[in-house]
Each structure stands twice: as C-alpha cells, then as structure tokens.
Specification:
The structure is a homodimer. Chain A has two domains: 155 residues, Lyase, Ornithine Decarboxylase, Chain A, domain 1, CATH 2.40.37.10; 250 residues, TIM Barrel. Helices cover 29% and strands 24% of the residues of chain A. In chain A, β17 and β18 form a beta hairpin.
Chain lengths: 416, 416
C-alpha cells in the first residue's frame, strides 16, 4: 500500500508506471536502494521497459498510417536516442548538436528533420552536407541561406514550410499559434511562398509543419488542434494547387506534473485522430501525416533520485536536505518557465513508499532559497539516507538544468 | 551619444562601466566587433579592469579593518577566481567542487570558508583533510559529522556557527532571516551550542556567520542588517561569555538589473559600516569583521554577447533571433528565480550604440517561447550580424545556465 493523499492524481499515475516491493520502488526488477547503492546519488534513472511500453501504447492507440517521430530535445542522452530511434519513425532535431548526438547514437541523417527559429549558417551547412531528411524553414531569409548552401555544395534538400497560423490552435496547453511569433512563417504569406518553391532547383518542397502546442492533457483540445491544422492544410492545398507530401502536425501530448492533473486519454486521442485523418484523406490524397513527440515519449520513463543528507527541524518545520536539487533538475524547482506558484512535481520517498505521510520542506544543498522541490509538501516520513524520487524526469531534466551551478558533481544518467 | 530611454537607469549605469568609440562598445581597449570576430559568438566576456576597479571602490569605501571575501558561487571561472583571490581577503566556497576549482586556480585552503545547508560527508572530509580555513556549520548533525571526520583524521578545524536569526534582517532584497529555514541554526539554540563547543578537542569555535540577504540596492537597508547582526552578536557574546573571533556578516550588495533600479550607494554603505563597526568595537574587542560578496564583486564585470542571426517581422512585430539565449543565460530569460513578469536585464546592441531606438522582441534559437531576453523592448535598430550585449552577466551567468538545453555549443568564456 502506498500512503498518499488520494487527491494527488499525478503521483498516483507515476507510481502506477513502476513496480514496488516491500515499500520500495523497483525499476527493471531491481530495488531502488540497490541501484542507488551501486551508482551513488544523485542520478537520473531511465527505464527501458517504460520506453517500450509507451511506444506500444502509442502505436496501439494511434492510426497505423500516422508517423510518430521522437523530438530529441526532450532527452538527448545517447542510450535514449539509440533506443527510440529503433522504435519510432524518425527523429526531430533542433540544433546541429542534436544532429551530431543522433548520428553518434547510430541514427542516419535521412531519418532526421530539423526545426528551429535560429538555425545558423553553420548548422544548415552541416545538415545539408550530411543529407538531412528535411528542414523546416522558418523565414524567407532562411530559405535564401539554404539555397546558397545547396548551390555551393551541389545538393538538394527537402523543405517543410513551418507555418505560424493566424488562429489559436487549441484551448489549453502552451499556446503557440496566432499572433506575431518567431516560429514559422505567417500563414498569410505561405501560399505565395509555396508556389515560389515549385520546381526549385535546390529546394524540394516537401510539405508543411505546424506546431500544435505543448504539454496538453485534453484529448479534445489536441483533436481540435489537429483538426484545425488539417483544415488549414486542405485550404492551402486547394489555394496553391501544390501537393503536400508531408504534414508535420507537431505534438503537444502532455503528462501529469501537478497533483490535480490526470493523464491524457490516449485512446480518445487515437479515436479522434482516426476520424480526423479519415475525413481529410480524400482531399489530401498525396499526404503522409506525422506527429513529433518528446515529453510524452520519454518523460514518464525517467526518475531523478537523490538522497536525504540531513533531516532538520527549524522552528517547528521539518526540512529534508538532499544531495540533489535545482542544479540537477531545474523544472522540479519550478524555475523552467513556471512563473506562478511552485507546484511540486510527483515526488515520493522511494524506499519508504508505505511510511506514514508528513509535511516537510524538501530542499537541495545549494545556498539559495530557490533550491527546493516543494515546501510543506506531503511525503512519507523519511530520514537521513533515504531516497527521494522525482518522477516524470525523463524529459527536460538533465539536459535542461544548470549543472554547473555551485560546482557540484553532475548527476549520473543510468538506463536499465 | 547613446540612444536610450533616460528612464532605463540600469542600462545607463552598465554603459557607464565601459568605454565606447564610434558607437561601439569597447572592452580592454578593443572594439566589441573585433573581439567577436576573433572569438566567434556567443561568449561571456569578463573585463579584468572592471574587476580591479570594483575592488578599489570597495576598499576605498569600506572600513579598512573589514575583511572582504569573494563568494566563488557567483562565478567559478578559473581566471576569475585567480584574479579575485589575489585581490580579496579570502574565498567563500559552497561545495567541494568550488573548493577544487579554487585550489586549481592557485588559492590555498586556509583562505577558504565553506558554507551550505547540505554538505555531504565526502565534502566535509575533503575540506578537513585539506585543512580548510573554516567551516560554517548549519546543524547539530553536521557538527557530529565534522567531529567524527576530525577524530578519524586526527585534525582540528575552525568552526563558524551559522545562525538563522529570529528577526528579519532588512526591509528589502531577498530575505533570508526569520522563520523556519534550512540555512543555519535557529538563533534560540545558538548560545547553548556555542558553550558546548568551548574546549572541544576537534572543533575550534571561531565565531558566527549570518547571511545578511542578497541583491539589496539600499544602503540603509544593508546598514540595518549589519546593525541587527552585530546587536545580536553582542548579546550572544554577553550571554555566553565566549569570544567571537570572526563575525561573517554575509553580503547582499546588489547591482541594478531592471530599468528602474539605481546603483547601490557604496559610499553610504561605507559610512554606515564605519559607524556601526565603531559602535560595537568596544563590546566585541576580540572580533574580526568579515563580509562575503559575489554578485557585487563580479556581476558588472561580465557581458554576454550573442549575434543576430535573423531579423524577422511577423504580423507587425520585429523579432531579432540571436545565436544565444536561455540555455546560455538563464537569468536573462527571467527563469532564475524571477517568478513575476519578465523584466529585461540591461541589454543593448553593442556595435550600434548610437542607432535610433525601436521596439523589438529579442529571442534565442531554442524551440520554446521561454527563450527570450525581452519582448517589445527598446533597442538600437539592429540587423543580421549585429551584436547583442547583456550586461551584468559576470555573476550567475555561465555557471547558472542549462548549457546542455537543445545541445548547442557552450559559449566561450573570455577574460581581457
């Protein structure tokens, strides 16, 4: 039995992703205390079985003809890329660095698609020289750069036009459509641009890319986004007369981070998507549909584990001071874009799952009040030496944290 | 002439710290375009002359018998530590990693003092074995650890008791006094603790450490903090009958980050401090007074420089997309503890100081709307290739940023 407030849905959901025995979390059939004893704390732990389970959930729920790509930005760890490249239909990369990491992990350039508002000439050159699968272009100026590089190197490259739609794509999650944006080309300029690309000697127009949003937990809202994207694409197809070989609809599938959040209904997303793709299939007969997911693919497979160094009472409040903190896991400290009140991520005492709950302040070793994963939060009663697990740490964890802050050791990354 | 809103006091102050010629920023007598041309962008640039100037300002303004130490956490760059270790009276370190960096930079352990709420046994052992100058202890439990390590290694170590005062130390800046805290030992427990340390075989009681706050721009408020600290110390001296060889009063001197902020009046701080030290001198005759500064010593000496990759207009708004961003400079993106509205740091176009102003959105290359140093901010009109300078980047810049986020190259660090 796990002692937790029944109202912490995110934590319940996280715990359900992993086994436990005798009040201890198990990953890959091993007790967390064993893993920590061998590796030393703190560490990020990625669970291969969870990666595969998520893949099968996605493949089972979503239409068979929908390509699903992995967005490397979520977790560029070599083993993670290697594992996911073997499962999914391609890799989305956001920098030359990510492309190099993906190549190092054994992937091939033709499986990669490159998007980002600030691609440098050096990055574009590297991508083109290595025969990248496609580039999502985000401005007319970028197209000029690409054409020049292709000309200099006698190369052709597949181009997706990234569109900044004039409409808001969905009613929840992180909004990225509508209004002025650094991402993509304003939709009102897209038809002329596409027509100008037909029969380009260097750029093969390959379709469009629209980012559907981020961290969305509503199946209906995600479905609305995709429906809006395809309605737009259909109009564009008619207006320009130019076929759209690929429509990259972005991703935006969320995972539950905060107590009141419940998991995305993936079956419902799948049913919506089947219906939506079906309804546009006749009008977009040449089109392959693609989504790109990062957080949803890799987020829940990862746990950040630190150890309690001190249990300390100050003026009636209990502090657990751990050997890990903000420097290793910025998002868990509430400083990666969360501008409001800090709401703790799903966190527990990994080797005391069945201990009675208490309210504690969970803090790291840094000399700053920012270094907390949660104040007055409910956790199983813990002592020095116990292990704190932060779930949902597979995406935007290690790579999105200021590892050099206060010059502590970097956490290990372990995949089991 | 520099074109800027007269109301941006922080930017005016930053510009006054550096030379310029023909509308270009100069550092160490070199034009910023030259430096960028040689080094490639983005980079952090630290100005040795500014470091020395700040040292002389501090030494001239503050009482001669006040020791001033450098808090390595602000910037642990090897050259910076080397430079500052030669100028100041010692180094404050916050981790074994910082101690190793300081040793690498040529400093000696006796010049170092170690504070932090989560020192691990390994960190304490390293510090004690290397004969660190002093350790600020933050809990009774930590004292047990230290005593055990000293016993095992037949060592003695100087101990400062870090105090969590019952009072709020000042009326502005980041508050760290009063209430339950992970930092220090609650003041009500300190007298007994100190008496218990007298004649300890392994721990030499060396005084107290009270953190006065952080990023405070008011001389009066800083003076109040110091006055409160010394009043407390005097009472403690009387209550315990135990001399206080050192009182580390922390620091907290701020630098102006946001438009409306004006620089700290250092002369006023100095006058207040002289008066305050004088007033407690007779009651604390055995005491050396010490402050530790990080941000104030090194913050204004550093500039983060990136280059405009794209100038892009979307639906009537202009975006400058640069090759640097949040991943290199988390604080400039408003994600290092600033929970409210993002207020830009002092930023300008370093090679177009005299160009007419316009309103632009300054964004980085990352695929996230978080990657901005300022939306609709006033900057000299810039084009592709121009250089964006973020001032006040010498402290909590490079080392406090998620450098691996989206796998771009790390910025260079240059000292001139």
């Amino acid at each position: 039995m796990y002692m937790t407030s029944k109202t912490n849905h995110a934590l319940q959901s996280s715990l359900a992703n992993f086994d436990n025995a005798d009040g201890e979390l198990k990953v890959a059939d091993r007790l967390i205390t064993e893993i920590a004893g061998e590796a030393g704390t703190p560490f990020y732990l990625y669970d291969r079985a969870s990666l595969h389970k998520r893949y099968h959930q996605l493949r089972q729920a979503l239409p068979a003809d929908l390509n699903i790509c992995y967005a490397v930005k979520a977790n560029p760890n070599n083993s993670i890329i290697r594992e996911l490249d073997a499962l999914y239909d391609g890799l989305d990369i956001a920098s030359k660095g990510e492309m190099m990491r993906a190549l190092d992990a054994g992937s091939t350039a033709d499986r990669m698609s490159f998007a980002g508002p600030g691609k440098s000439a050096d990055e574009l050159k590297f991508a083109i020289e290595n025969d990248i699968g496609a580039i999502s272009v985000e401005s007319a100026r970028e197209i000029d750069h690409i054409r020049q590089i292709c000309q200099d190197n006698n190369k052709q490259v597949n181009i997706l036009v990234r569109v900044n739609p004039a409409f808001e794509l969905s009613s929840s999650g992180m909004k990225m459509g509508g209004g002025p944006k650094q991402f993509g080309i304003d939709s009102e300029l897209v038809p002329e641009l596409i027509k100008s690309l037909v029969d380009d000697r260097y750029l093969r127009f390959h379709g469009i890319h629209i980012f559907a949003g981020s961290q969305n937990l509503s199946a209906e809202s995600i479905a609305d986004s995709f429906d809006n994207i395809l309605r737009y694409a259909q109009t564009l197809r008619v207006d320009t007369g130019v076929p759209l070989p690929i429509i990259n609809m972005g991703g935006g599938f969320g995972i539950p981070y905060i107590a009141k959040a419940t998991p995305l209904d993936l079956q419902a997303v799948g049913l919506h998507l089947s219906r939506i793709l079906q309804s546009y299939r006749t009008e977009l007969p040449e089109t392959s549909f693609k989504i790109e997911l990062g957080r949803y693919i890799v987020g829940e497979c990862g746990i950040y584990v630190s150890r309690v160094l001190y249990r300390k009472v100050s003026r009636g409040e209990t502090f657990l001071v751990t050997d890990g903190g903000l420097h290793h896991h910025l998002a868990a400290s509430g400083n990666l874009g969360q501008k409001m009140v800090h709401r703790p991520m799903p966190i527990t005492v990994a080797n005391k799952l069945d201990h009675p709950l208490e309210h504690v302040n969970l803090v790291g070793p840094l000399c700053t009040p920012l270094d907390t994963f949660g104040m007055r939060m409910e956790l199983p009663t813990a002592n020095e030496g116990d292990l704190i697990a932060v779930f949902n740490s597979g995406a935007y964890g290690y790579s999105a944290s200021p590892l050099g802050f206060l010059s502590h050791n970097h956490p290990k990354e372990i995949i089991l």
